[in-house]
Amino acid sequence: MAVEKEKKVTSPSGGLSALWKKEDYWAVWLGLGMVLITILLWASGSSFMKAIAIKVPTWSEFGTATEYLGNNVPGIIGLFLGFLLLFSIAIKILGHNVSKFVVGFAALFIFSLFVTVMGSWTVAKSFNLEAPLLALAFGLIIGNFVKIPAWLDASLKTEFFVKTGIVLMGATLPFTLIMKAGPVAFLQATIISITTFATIYFAGTRLFGLDRRFASTLAAGGSICGVSASIAIGGAVKADKNYVSVAISLVVVWAVVMIFSLPILIKVFGIDAGPAGAWIGTSEFADAAGMAAAAAIGEQSIKTFTLVKVVGRDMFVGIWAFLMAIISVTQWEKRVDGSKPNAGEIWGRFPKFVLGFFVASIIVTILVASNGDAAQADIDSVVIKPLKELRNWAFIFTFLSIGFTTRFKDLTSVGWKPFAAFTTGVLVNVPLGFLLSVIVMGNYWANV
């Protein structure tokens, strides 16, 4: 999820230049690059990645945290410089101001270190305030009471951080698990996506009289993958720029609500981590926000959330974009200008970071399968666990960026009709997700 506004892309594919001129591709290159570097270092006998994959231990006395930080100064510096170098390369080639990004990212990293320490506090953990949730809360407080300077704003690349984190997540999920659970996740996601899309679209057009392009943009944000889907579908149907902005705002509003409410409901109902993650995967509207909620439950919840949301629902964005482009051109656009829906729209709108997720999973799966049992523990310790921590850091950057760029006063100006249409989808989506994840498929998700 991101609050930053992305420019519409008029060309569906962009040719070969898209491989280094689009954020989606760079998220794949950076994520897979970190995976390959970690494997190569492990193969050479180096534990460098393990040293920089900082994880503050749980503490009840602040001295425990400060002692850990003091003993790991080289690792902290290495972690910062590693992320800074990789992100700066991408930022430069994507055409952004590198100098401002470097200064801003230094501050963002310090904030991330702070919330990581505080999220490891036993008191915070007792309230389910893991580092991701704490990062979001911290960002929201600062962002709504302090004017964010331009140099810090230049580093808040929400979509970029979350996409990179999702690619890294693939390395922590064996491909055999995806192949086993993927069809079930896709089936559940299909039911959720179609039902929620139809609900928001028909509520918007029939009950509240919204423009069809507006309703379809709202429906995409609520049923597929939040901000990215709103932008993709909005572009596919040539929606007004303000329609996309309103859809993004509503995704932010409800994603933030779900981040805090779903873990509370899960705890009240005593739902196991597996079904809980699947429910979050069907009920959240954005990857970053869902990951924050899932992280508050546990690692098993992260796995099932990823299978339902990333493997299942996110896969729909390219398909929906193509289908809605056909409907828009053939049914909605009254002016005949000779334009035809292009099959390349599917590839142009497809979230490339999802492919990176699969490739990362396949690489690590092959690595594990090609080494004997004696090497399994070493691979887990020096490859998979460090990648998991790098993933967590990428998500903390994401959650802070969301908080810093979200303005409550802006979110109250979207009007009641689009809010009502979107909320109608929420009222269908959440109970249906509970029914499928906990009642119908609860045993399955509990044993994934």
UniProtKB/TrEMBL annotation:
It is found in: Cell membrane. InterPro entries: UPF0324_pro (IPR018383). The chain crosses the membrane at residues 26-53, 73-94, 101-123, 129-148, 160-179, 185-203, 215-237, 243-266, 278-298, 310-332, 353-370, 390-408, 420-446. The keyword Cell membrane applies. The keyword DNA damage does not apply. It is a multi-pass membrane protein. Keywords: Cell membrane, Membrane, Transmembrane, Transmembrane helix. Pfam families: Cons_hypoth698. GO terms for cellular component: plasma membrane. Belongs to the UPF0324 family. This is Putative membrane protein.
